[in-house]
Amino acid sequence: MNYRVSILFILALEQGMSIEQLMWVEKYRPKRLDDVVNQKEIVEGIKRIIASPAGMPNMLFAGPAGVGKTTVALCIAREVLGEYWRDYTLELNASDERGINMVREKVKMFTRYTSIGSIPFKIVILDEADEMTPEAQTALRRIMEDSASTSRFILICNYISQIIGPIQSRCVIFRFKSLARDDVVNHLANICKLEGVRYEDKALEMIYEFTSGDLRHAINILQAAASHGTVNDASVRSALGISYKARVGEVIRLALEGNFNDARLKMLELTKVHGLSERDFIKFASEEIMKGAIKDAGANTKGAELLRILAEYDYRLVVGAHPDIQLAALLAELARIGKASSGGRAGK
Ligand SMILES: Nc1ncnc2c1ncn2[C@@H]1O[C@H](COP(=O)(O)OP(=O)(O)OP(=O)(O)O)[C@@H](O)[C@H]1O
Ligand SMILES: [Mg+2]
């Protein structure tokens, strides 16, 4: 997303528009299984299962980013639980929550304090389950068993190999695939039509090439390109040029040049306006440093040291330190290192 979009974003948010109305990824997130793009076998299998909801098993969704895992989980909750599905659905992120004890407490409270009434069970959606340690997963397995009479779990992960055997064997496993070129291009074209935005087929194909089957990423780039008026070669190139990774690289470069304030503001824009998670920020930063993209700021010689520092802050986030404070501290440390390596001169 580009600068122009982000200013519009802030203005619109101030006028009380919701993220759902503003972000096309949310606006066009399917609400019913029938509207999910591709993933045909999975959707068919799930429809058969939820035709008699009482027999719904725990499920494990695996697959790459942005292909519909969370979307399908939410569709199931809507279709099985009906109008008040939100009241009976608990969405947790295993890597955000402060460890398995928090998961246990939240699940316990959730299953204890809301009455079940006319619904068959409550649904717990646990994202990023593969980020949990094997010990935490063993505890999770216990929690799943203890709440078997009241709840069903949908666990979501990228890598199924990171999920312990005892959990795998207690779930029906669905493997999501990257979306194909036609799926992505047609979906993007539909969104353009609904938004009344002019587009060129070639430009949509270029977005597919860049995002290789990650529909979330593709829609975000489409929205950024559309902010230039038309989705064509030039607007897509411009949108791609300012994709998250490049912008995170820019933040790191500013910090290394000693420009802490600008770096911090841009970092906040990425995390607060664009919703980039703090851990993704660190991940992208390390990818950019490894690519040597930040070499002109002295990262070549300092590369190893920078990666060590990023790993340390990544760890602090995992163990639950405050993300805003940690990222600001990270940038301050980079600014200090940048100054030291340029012989005490801040910036260039
Ligand atoms: N199969 C799909 N059909 C329709 N829209 C999709 C599909 N996959 C992704 N999207 C779009 O991308 C957005 C993100 O999808 P979703 O949250 O389901 O991805 P995910 O597979 O859970 O990815 P992650 O592993 O990064 O959490 C959705 O809001 C929707 O707009
Ligand atoms: Mg998801």
UniProtKB/TrEMBL annotation:
Keywords: ATP-binding, DNA replication, Nucleotide-binding. The keyword Acyltransferase does not apply. GO terms for biological process: DNA repair; DNA-templated DNA replication. Residues 55-179 form the AAA+ ATPase domain. GO terms for cellular component: DNA replication factor C complex. Transmembrane segments: none annotated. CDD domains: AAA, HLD_clamp_RFC. GO terms for molecular function: ATP binding; ATP hydrolysis activity; DNA binding; DNA clamp loader activity. Belongs to the activator 1 small subunits family. RfcS subfamily. PANTHER family: REPLICATION FACTOR C / DNA POLYMERASE III GAMMA-TAU SUBUNIT, REPLICATION FACTOR C SUBUNIT 4. This is Replication factor C small subunit. It comes from Candidatus Nitrosocaldus cavascurensis. The lineage of its organism: Archaea, Nitrososphaerota, Nitrososphaeria, Candidatus Nitrosocaldales, Candidatus Nitrosocaldaceae.
